[in-house]
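Input sequence (214 aa), recorded before submission:
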Amino acid sequence: MESITVVSLLDVISELFSEEISIAVSNTSQYIYYRPSKRIDLKIRPGDPLKEGTIAYKAIYSRQKVSEFINREVFGVPYHGMAVPFFHEGRLEGCVTAIFPSLTSGKLVVTLKTDDGWIPVPFSQVVYLEAKDKRTYVHTQEHCGTHKYSLQEFEFVLPKDYFIRCHRSYIVNVNHIKEIFPDSHSTFILAMDTGDRVPVSQSYSSYFRRLLGF
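Predicted structure, token format:
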């Protein structure tokens, strides 16, 4: 089977999985295919070597299915994953890995840093988060402050039931969206109940529409 046909087939198979799941395929030493999800992206590229400590590495060297939690020391973000090795005529050829976002921690607040100190804010009061000037700003109904987490790290902390990544620089709380307006090139503008407006980029628009059902 030609290489381009294999890639096309893997793309189709990936569509069978939830948009929450990233898919990676490796041979015995390096990754040969990767499809990130909107929810979690380990920034893997075809040709990257298998890192010691990953579940793909463990599946290859144990020659059996591995399913476990991997902490942030390996890829910079925590994740849950399952890797299954595959064989051809008895010889180990590689493995397929499904990568899931880690579950939300038990914390129910985001603690903002302000000029005067720190303010713990319940998740429900967070309207949106913004990455700007190499900092993460958390906008709430009454306050705006910064946090040490990146947006990608926040995706593993915030409840996925109502926080959605809508742009490379924004995560929104859907409970605070007042109206949705169409914008150019299949994008949208979100009018939040605080009066702020948040963009939905073209790369996230289909994902955003599917999750909100419109």
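Checked by second reader. The CA atoms of residues 108 and 122 lie 6 Å apart.
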